[in-house]
Structures are given as C-alpha cells and as structure tokens.
From TrEMBL:
SMART domains: AAA. CDD domains: ABC_6TM_MRP1_2_3_6_D1_like, ABC_6TM_MRP1_2_3_6_D2_like, ABCC_MRP_domain2. One of its GO terms (cellular component) is vacuolar membrane. InterPro entries: AAA+_ATPase (IPR003593), ABC1_TM_dom (IPR011527), ABC_transporter-like_ATP-bd (IPR003439), ABC_transporter-like_CS (IPR017871), ABC_transporter_C-like (IPR050173). Residues 714-730 have a biased composition (Polar residues). This is ABC-type glutathione-S-conjugate transporter.
Length: 1229
C-alpha cells in the first residue's frame, strides 16, 4: 500500500495526536486497575448471592455503575489524546468529586474491617488510594501534540498554553515568572508571547465583521451628508433633498456580540460566587448553635472545614471571574485601538479637521484621559518648539493651568460626591442592622437579641457592605463609559474618504484624467471647480499659481483626498507622492527612503545619488542608518481661485498673452545673458516691456489690489543644488564621494531617540515622600487619624453588640431601660462611624487632588523649561503618556486605592487586636503569619511592580505611532501602505499587551492571600505613576527665564545681545494652533484690531482675510491644515510684524510662497525691520545679496564670513561658486 499510495497506509502518531507518554500510559494503567477492582467487587457480590448470602441490589449496581462511569472516563482519555488536549477540566473535576465523595465510604470500610470479607476489604483499601493517585495524575498536563491546526508556534510560548486545568485554575503556571521577577528586575525579553487567541490578528477580524454588519444596518442613505457638531458631540445628517438618514451604528452592540459569550461565562462564575457568599452566614449559625449546645466535636470540625472550603471555592470562582473580565477588557482595548487606527486611515479630511490629533489619540486612551478639554491643550506640547522660539511658555502655561483648574473643579465635585456616597453606603448596612435590631427587640418584649441572632444577622448585613461600597464606583464608571461611547460612536461614524472618488481604469489612454471636476475640503465650500485635465503618458507637467490658488489641492484631488462633488477622476498605474511638507517617520534614514520596500543595494544607491543625498549622508554620523527624530527633527528641512485659468503647451500659452505669459515674464531675469534670448522672444510675442507692465497693472486694478508691486525686474532665484551637467564647485570638491557599496555601521551615538528606560527594584522611598509632601503632612496625619477613629467606632459597635447579646434575661424578657441603652449606644456608635467615614473620605480625596494638581503643575512647568534637545530626543508619545495615563492614575486611581488600603490596613489591625484580646494564644500565630504574608507580598510586588513599569513604557510607542500616522495619512494612502501601518500598530498593541497580560494574571495569582497584601501591592504598583511624573519633573532645565536683578531695560537689546523674548523667528515649518486666526496672531490679546489688520496688510494677507466670512475669527484647524503652506508662512510673517522685536530670524521663511509674493515680502522686511538685526537662512541667494555679511556653513563648520561683495570678488570662494550656479555671480561681481 505504501508503494501504491506513496505515503504510509496508517500513521499511528497522527491517529494519537498526543504521543504515548509515561503520564497517559500511567493514567490508562491506573484506570484499568480501578475497573478490574470493580469487576472483582461485582464478582464477589454475585458469588455471595450464589451461595445464599443476603446481597442487596446496591452491592451489585454500585460496581456496575462505576464500571460504566470509568469506561466513559477511559473513552475521554483516549478522545482527548486524539484531539490533542493536554489537560481536561471534565476529567479533573470528575476525579476530584469522586475522590471527595468516596472519603466517607473509605472511612466506613476501615471501621468495619473486622466484619468485612478479606478480599472485599483489600479491594476497597486499594480502590481509594488509586482514586487519589488518578486525581494526582490529573494535576499535570500531557506532552504537546504532534499536529496542531491553525496554531502559530511562538518562540516564547506562554506557559498557560501548556498548563494543566488545576494550574490554570490556581494560576500556578505564573509562578516561574514570579520567581524570575523576585530574583532580578524583569526585562521585556523575560516575558512570554501573547496567547494566539489574544493577539490582534485574531481578535480584530471578529470585531470588524460585526461592526461592518452594524454599519450596513445603519447605513446612511445616498446623497446624505454627515457632519460633526462639536458642542453636542453628535453627527448631524443633512439630506440633499431626500429622506433623512438612518441612526448611527453603535460600538456597544458590536462589543457585546463579539465578547458577550466570554463576559456571560464570567457573569455565571460571579453568580456562583455570590450564591456561595450566603453559605457562610448559615454555617456560622450552625457553628454558634454547636458552641451553645455542646454537640459532638466532629460537627465543630465539620462546620469549620465547610467554612474554609466555602472560602476557598469562593476565591477560585471570584479569581476566574475577574480573570475573564480583565481578559475581555484587554481584548476590547485591542480591538478598539485597532478600529480607531483603521478609521484614522479612512476618515475624510472634513471630518478629520473637526478634532485635533490630541482628541483622536485620546480615544485610544479613554481610560487614561477622562475629559476632552485636557487633551485638547496637549497639542501645545507638540508645538512646543514655536512656544520656546517666541518665549510664550509662561503665557501658554497659564492657559493650560486654566483648563487644568476647570478639570480639578470637576474632580473636586466628584470627590465631594464620593465622600457623600461613601457616607451613605457606609451607613446603609449599619442603618439596616440598627433598624432591624430595633424592630425586632421593640416589637415584643420576648424578642431577645442573643449572639446567634445578632452575629448571623450582622454577617448577612455585611454582605451588603462591599457591593454598596462599589456601587458609586460602578455608577461613575458607567457614566464615564457612556461618555467614551459617545465619543467613539461619533468618531467611528464619521465620514470616510470615498474610495470610488478616483477610478483606476487601466484602459484609459492617459495616466491622469479629470473631467468636469469640482472638489471641496469642507461642505458648501468649493475649492476647485470646473477642472478638466488630461496628463499624457511620459509628460512633465508644471502647475503654477500664486499663494492659496489651489495647486496642492489639485494634487490632493488626483489622490482622492478631497471630496469630489462632480465629475470624473481616473488614474492609471502606481503613484509616488512627495508632499509639500515632508512627512518623516521616527526611524532610520534608510527605512524612511525604502518606506516598507525591500532593500536592493544597487537600486537604492542609484536613488540616493539621483536625489543628491550622498553628501548629506556623509555628514550624518551613521550614514543612512542614522535615526531620524520625530517629524525629521534632525534633518534640514497657473491657477487662480480654485480654477484652472489656462492650460496648454508652452507655445500655446505664450501666444494667448494671458496669465501664464505674465507669470513667466515676472520670473525671468532680464539681466542674465543666457536668458536674454528668451526675453527677446517674449517681447516679440507679448509686446514691449512697457506694454506688459501696463497690462499687468490693469489686471491688478481689476482685482482690487492696486498697491501691489509685481516686481518685473525680479532676479532669477534658484535653489543651489548639485547637478551632473555642471562643473563641480569648490564646495562639492570638499566632500569625498565614497564607495557606493560601503556602509557606515551605526553606533550608540547615532541613535537619536533611546528606548524609554524603566526603573528597576523597589519604588524608592523618595517617591513616597514626594507624593506625601504633595498631599501635605498635616492632611496625611488627619486622614490616617480619622480612619483610625472610624475603625475604633466599628470595633466598639461589635464589642457593644457582643455585650448586648450576652446580657442575662429574666423570665425570657430583658430590662427595658437596659435594652434601650444598648440600642441607643449601638446607634450612636454607628453615627460615629458614618461621620468619621464622611470626613475621612473628604480629607483623603481633597488632599489627593491637591497632590495631583501639584504634580501636574510641576511636570508641566518642568517640561516647558526643558531645553529643545529634550524634545528632539523624546517622542511626543512618551510626553503624552505622562500627561495622560500617569496623571490620570494620580487623579483617579491612586486616591481610590489609598482609601481601600487604609480601610483594609486598619481593619486587619483591629481584627488582630480583638482576636488577640479575646484569645491570647493567637498572639503566637500572628508573628509567623505576618512574616509569611510580608514575604509573599515582597515576592509578588517585585514582579507586579516591574510589569507595571514595562507596561507603561510599552504604551508610549502606540500613541507615538498613531500620532505619526495621523499626520502622514495622505502619504500612507498615496503609497497604498495602509496594511503595513495597520500591522505595525497592531504589533505595538500586542507588544504592550505582552506586559499587561501577566500583570492581570499576577493579581489573580495573589488573590488567594489576604486582601491587605493585595491592596499594599496595588499601592506600590500604582505609585509607579508618581515615579514617572517625578522623573519628568526632574529633567535638565534651561537657565531661568528671567533674573530680576539682571533684567535689561525695555528697549534692550541695542547691541545685538540675545534674549528669546526680544527675538522673533519665522520658522521654516510654519506652526499654527487650533483656534481663531486672531488667536494665532495675538494669543495673549496684546494688540488692537488696527495693528493686526496693518500686520496682515504688510504680510499681503489682508484681502484674503477680508474675504473670509468670519474675518479674524476664522477658525484655523490644527496645524493650519485649512490654509495652504504659503498662507501659513504669511501668517507667521504677520505674527512677526506684530511683535516688531530688535532681532528677526528668518529660517527659509518664504520657501513655500511664489516668487512674486517673495519679492513683496522681502520689500516688507527691508522697510519694516530696517532698524533691526536680521539673520536670514536662505537657499534663494538673491534674497540675501544685500545683507551686511554672509556666513557660509559646510558640515557644521564656518567656511566663510564676509560681505557678499567681497565674497563675489574672490572667485575661489564657495559663495561665488554658489552664486554662479544661481546665475548671480556676473550680476553682482
């Protein structure tokens, strides 16, 4: 058969998926012996019946039933072996229960051994130990299966996958990590991989499938328009003449559908636990009756054993419940983060502009940031560079603190409510007890409150205490979840970019076609209209126009980024997109160039050389392996009114004598010899220079801007660049071109952004002291004292109840005066508890909020005072993580945990004191027990604390990557790289969950121990947030912003000294904030409207702003996304004109404006800043030819520093060669 089929006829290893091992062979052997023993017992019964002895049916049916049952167990062992199941819950529970229930029979057999037949006695004596042995064998997992379908093997698989049912039940499989964490601080490499079912790739598809169904059900009808309403946090559906759209899809039903079964299983476990809670009071009732009646001693041991067993079973069920709930929470977080990320790559630009990056990132950390307003100001941190350049830190810090003050007010109100609800829920069980006892004893004189009634009732009333204490937290969580759900629904239902707005018909002859196209960025605001464009294959097309004319918008329309209102757009072939503002990832330069493509050395080197990057790579310390900071921080960094005014070939447009001809004549250097022929040709076609000027002025007059000077004598402006056709200049000769195949190996110094480091070892005492100082020593003492008083009243009420219940009675009645005294004092002690709880909770929450406010202010002030190098080398996600998650822990989580720890601490102390007083012998047990608890707590905390640190560190890259994606979404879509970036995001989430999952398991692992140990561990785990805030509160600082005794006069500087507040810079990358245009120009309202309009006029923005419906109140989107890059630079110029400082720094300030506008700006700068010191960084050399001196840099070193005229006289100078390349050398020499 093997020769015929080519494969083995029968593979026993494939049949028995789990190979034969010592464990499963032993299981089968023991089970076989047990079945043989039952056959023997059955044979003895039939034999006795044959010889006439009395044999009851139970003696025959019992072994028969057992044989059938054990036969089924044998089948299960073989079945699980075939299916590859290494451990079976059903088998473990079967053998556990049968062993427990056979204990009485085994005891009976021992007691009746003398009257029992010897063979039967031997069988029963062998039977029970074999049951125990089989139960012991069930505690271990079998060997791994040989064949696994749809299971991915991991390098470091989680031990949970290989653990037995008992190990999973008790979380014993976690012990190896706990020991490792105790011996040394855990590192990320010590952690296991996520279980396959918990990974993003397995969780996300299930959610997406259900979410898409929800969207299909709630799909908006065609021709309807969805728009955000920020104030109401809703989406308005505006129908275009048709019936209104259907309701939005909600995330909640989708989550319930995806994770409902796991949640319901957990709920069932909690139900069992809650039922078992009521068992203890009933057993306590039996135990008190036993003590009072003096029954047999074995009953007392039985009751005590039942109490212990009930507690153990409750703990197991509760631990499994919490584990499943945290697992559901982890999976929900995984799916939501992925869903939010995927949506970010699909959301339309109009919907995207409704929220800042901070607000969208906030959706990923809804548990970290409770209020949308707080995150809204975090974009100020992202713009911290411009804050520092303008010395605006103090003013913006005030703005932030105003927002923070509002949040603190809300948190204070919540604290008052928490204190009030704490008062109510603390009183509730006691009030129930007082009312119940009062009703009982006052109803009839014969109703005596004895110990049995009092303490059993009290134990039942105390069952209410925990759920009632949790109720306020649950209500708060539900409300917060409701707010988060609204935000998620708003975001997830936002308009998406229409993937069909651009077709990709490969049969279209032209690569790019637009027919009758009209496009908009926002509703009812047409940006491009009546666009008809065909780009022939192999052609080179230039799109020209003035600032804000729609050049970049046209490219966005071709890419499908704009909303297509009418017409047809088709592209054929792949697209490469170079955005106006370069989007650089925080990665190596090589990775940024490759952008996900495989590295092909020859092709890569050709690209590098073609882009003239080789000399720049030589400057970088690690070559192309140098890490680039966020947004490329360490790298240097004719259309009109949205309509195509003219289109055609060069000759056709020239003959039209239209706008292109005018545009061209403005930017041709009439004095350049090489272009004199072109000038003559233009004049021959267009007329004399005087005619051209007259025609242009006429057009300007028609457009209403008569004051503009077109600057027809504009000199040629080019970017100095290396060209293969030109002779190499002295500057280029200074740079050796290395072997193309040679690679620089990056060193540690080449890594700009180091991995975020986690602290190791115990949280230092200084961190606790830092937090307690923030709380205040007096408030700390008062809080502890009030909680001590509360516990004193609590203990006093129980002692008083004990005295009351032991009061002697007379003829079955109690003295009325004494009864009333007992009742009144008991009620008074309850009132004392309530008052102490109210004031204690209030002082705790109030002082905790003061501490949170202080810590937030300290980290904010410190971060704003950090030098620019800190922001260049620290990913913004890390800073955001500190301000979001860690501040939230200090705001909300830590106070609650501290409250629980204080209550638990005093409760344990009080319990130990009472038991020691009533039973002095117990003191001998307290000390060793306390030592054991302390050692276990230290053993556990070493692991849980480090896991918390690793989880916090691994969370930052998620936010950094998401923020990076939001800013580069257009580029990602243009290159069709969505899948790669989604995979990267999900990998980072899984990376974070790898440290989060063990942390939730560690909590369950410790759950069997005293609650105080758990709470103590929680305090140390969450104090890590204070540790992280303290770290950023102690970063290196700049010098003091102001030194009063050395403060210069108001008119300073007269001699060119430096001071940031008296210096204005127009940066290369214009930075605008979310808010009105006026706020962007004058954020602190120091200037009146007249000054602002003058600044706008001088920056050539006045006509544009007057054309806006809201004027100065026009809302600017985050980063100025609803303005062109050129307009943003002009806004920065207007900002500089308002400040009018003695020193002006221009860093490529006009790089994004057309040459005509550049001319006008240069004139403005020369007239308005004529009495100022101006430092200009420029590639357009003509803009600096009238500078006093020119400084030439190469590789970070000063090569030349002299006046332009002197440098041009020296034909060996670098500056001369650059001017020659730009066509300026002959003119100015």
């Amino acid at each position: 058969m093997e020769d015929f089929c080519g494969t083995p006829f029968w593979d026993w290893n494939r049949t028995w998926n789990i190979p034969w091992s010592a464990l499963n062979v032993t299981k089968l052997g023991v089970l076989t012996i047990i079945m043989l023993l039952q056959l023997g017992e059955l044979a003895i019964a039939f034999s006795a019946e044959n010889i006439g002895e009395a044999v009851y049916p139970v003696q025959k049916y019992t072994p028969i039933t057992r044989i059938i049952t054990f036969g089924l167990a044998l089948f299960l062992i073989l079945f699980t072996k075939i299916k590859g199941m290494r451990s079976s819950a059903v088998q473990f529970l079967f053998w556990f229960l049968i062993t427990i229930f056979e204990i009485p029979g085994f005891r009976t057999s021992i007691r009746e051994s003398e009257s029992m037949e010897m063979l039967l006695f031997v069988i029963r004596m062998a039977y029970f130990p074999l049951l125990v042995g089989q139960l012991f064998l069930q505690c271990w997992a079998d060997v791994p299966p040989q064949y696994r379908e749809n299971v991915q093997l991991h390098e470091k698989p989680c031990p949970e996958e290989e653990a037995s049912f008992l190990s999973r039940l008790t979380f014993f499989w976690f012990e190896s990590l706990a020991w490792k964490g105790y011996r040394k601080p855990l590192e990320y490499d010590d952690l296991w991989d996520l279980n396959a079912e918990d990974k993003s790739k397995n969780q996300v598809p299930a959610f997406d499938k259900r979410w898409n169904k929800s969207l299909a059900k709630a799909k908006i009808v065609p021709d309807s328009k969805a728009s955000f309403q920020a104030k109401s946090e809703s989406i308005d559906i505006k129908s275009k003449g048709k019936k209104p759209g259907k309701p939005q899809a909600s995330v909640l039903p989708t989550l319930c559908s995806a994770f409902g079964p796991t949640f319901l299983m957990g709920a069932l476990l909690k139900l069992v636990h809650d039922v078992l809670v009521f068992v203890s009071p009933q057993v306590l009732n039996l135990l008190i009756s036993f003590v009072q009646s003096g029954e047999e001693s074995w009953k007392g041991f039985l009751y005590a054993g039942i109490l212990f067993a009930t507690s153990c079973v409750q703990t197991l069920f509760l631990s499994q419940y919490f584990h499943r709930m945290f697992l559901v929470g982890m999976r929900i977080r995984t799916t939501l983060v992925s869903a939010i990320y995927r949506k970010a790559l699909l959301i339309s630009n109009s919907a995207r502009k409704e929220s800042t990056v901070g607000e969208i990132v906030n959706l990923m950390s809804v548990d970290a940031q409770r209020f949308m307003d707080l995150t809204a100001y975090l974009n100020m941190i992202w713009s911290v560079k411009v804050l520092k350049l303008y010395a605006w830190e103090p003013s913006f810090a005030d703005q932030v603190m105003k927002i923070r003050s509002k949040e603190i007010q809300v948190l204070k109100q919540a604290a008052y409510l928490n204190a009030g609800t704490s008062f109510i829920w603390t009183c509730a069980p006691f009030l129930v007890a007082v009312v119940s006892f009062a009703s009982y004893v006052l109803a009839q004189p014969n109703n005596i409150l004895d110990a049995q009634k009092a303490f059993v009732s009290l134990s039942l009333f105390n069952i209410l205490r925990f759920p009632l204490s949790m109720l306020p937290m649950m209500i708060s969580s539900v409300i917060q979840a409701g707010v988060s759900l609204k935000r998620l629904n708003k975001y997830m239902n936002a308009d998406e970019i229409d993937p069909n707005s651009v077709s990709h018909d490969n049969h279209e002859p032209d690569p790019v076609v637009i027919e009758n196209g009209s496009f908009s960025w926002e509703e009812d605001n047409v940006t491009l209209k009546n666009i008809n464009l065909k780009v022939k294959e192999g052609s080179l097309v230039a799109i020209v126009g003035t600032v804000g004319s729609g050049k970049s918008s046209l490219l966005s329309a071709i890419l499908g980024e704009m909303e297509k209102l009418t017409g047809r757009v088709n592209t054929r072939g792949s697209i490469a997109y170079v955005a106006q503002q370069a989007w650089i990832q925080n990665s190596t330069l090589r990775d940024n160039v490759l952008f996900g493509r495989p590295y092909e050395p020859a092709k890569y080197e050709k690209v590098i050389n073609s882009c003239a990057l080789r000399p720049d790579l030589e400057i970088l310390p690690g070559g192309d392996r140098t890490e680039i900071g966020e947004k490329g921080i360490n790298l240097s960094g004719v259309m009109k009114d949205g309509e195509i005014s003219e289109i055609g070939t060069y000759k056709q447009l020239l003959e039209k004598k239209g706008e292109f001809a005018d545009f061209l004549i403005q930017h041709i250097n009439s004095d350049d010899q090489e272009e004199s022929a072109i000038i003559e040709e233009l004049e021959g076609v267009l007329g004399s220079r005087e005619e051209i000027i007259a025609r242009q002025r006429s057009r300007i007059s028609e457009s209403g801007d008569a004051g503009a000077d077109l600057g027809l004598s504009r000199q040629l402006s080019t970017t100095s660049q290396e060209s293969g056709e030109k002779s190499s200049t002295p500057l280029r000769k200074m740079s050796k071109v290395p072997d193309a195949n040679a690679e620089k190996q990056p060193t540690v110094k080449d890594k700009l952004i180091e991995a975020e480091k986690a602290e190791t070892g115990s949280v230092k005492a200084s961190v606790y002291v830092h937090y307690l100082k923030a709380v205040g020593w007096s408030m700390t003492f008062l809080t502890m004292f009030l909680n001590l008083i509360f516990q004193g009243f609590s203990v006093g009420s129980n002692i008083w109840l004990s005295v009351w219940s032991n009061e002697n009675t007379l003829n079955g009645t109690q003295n009325v005066d004494k009864r009333d005294l007992y009742l009144g004092v008991y009620a008074g002690l309850g009132v004392g508890q309530a008052v102490a709880a109210l004031i204690g909770s209030f002082t705790l929450f109030y002082s905790s909020l003061n501490a949170a406010s202080y810590l937030h202010e300290s980290i904010l002030n410190n971060v704003l005072r950090s030098p620019m190098s800190f922001f260049d080398t620290t990913p913004l996600g890390r800073i955001l993580n500190r301000f979001a998650k860690d501040v939230d822990v200090v705001d909300n989580t830590l106070p609650t945990i501290l409250r629980g720890w204080i209550h638990c601490f005093y409760g344990v102390i009080a319990t130990l004191a009472v038991i020691s007083y009533s039973t002095p012998e117990f003191v001998a047990v307290i000390i060793p027990t306390g030592i054991v608890y302390y050692l276990v707590q230290r053993f556990y905390v070493a692991t849980s604390r480090q896991l918390k640190r690793l989880e916090s560190v691994s969370r930052s890259p998620i936010y950094s990557h998401f923020g990076e994606t939001l800013t580069g979404a257009s580029t990602i879509r243009a290159y069709s790289m969505q899948d790669r970036f989604i995979h990267e995001s999900e990998s980072k989430v899984d990376h974070n969950q790898i440290s989060y999952y063990p942390s939730i398991v560690s909590n369950r692992w410790l759950a069997t121990l005293n609650w105080l140990v758990r709470m103590t561990s929680d305090v140390e785990t969450n104090i890590v947030a204070v540790e992280r805030i303290k770290e950023y509160g102690e970063t290196p600082q700049e010098a003091e912003w102001e030194i009063n005794e050395r403060k210069p006069p108001k008119e300073w500087p007269q001699n060119g000294k430096e001071k940031r507040g008296r210096l204005t810079i127009i940066p290369q990358d214009p930075v605008l904030f979310s808010g009105t245009l006026r706020v962007n120009l004058d954020p602190f309202e120091r200037y009146d409207d007249e000054n602002i309009w003058r600044a706008l006029e001088l920056s050539h923005l006045k006509s544009f702003v007057k054309g806006l419906s809201a004027g100065l109140q026009h809302e600017v989107n985050e980063g100025g996304e609803n303005l062109s890059v050129g307009q943003r630079q002009l806004v920065c110029l207007a900002r500089a004109l308002l400040r009018k400082t003695k020193i002006l720094v221009l860093d490529e300030a006009t790089a994004a404006v057309d040459l005509e506008t550049d001319d006008l700006i240069q004139q403005t700068i020369r007239s308005e800043f004529k009495d100022c010191t101006v430092l200009t960084i420029a590639h357009r050399l003509n803009t600096i030819m009238d500078s006093t001196r020119v400084l030439v840099l190469d590789r970070g070193e000063i090569r030349e520093f002299e006046s332009p005229s002197n440098l041009l006289k020296n034909k060996q100078s670098i500056f001369y060669s650059m001017a020659k390349d730009a066509g300026l050398a002959n003119i100015n020499s």
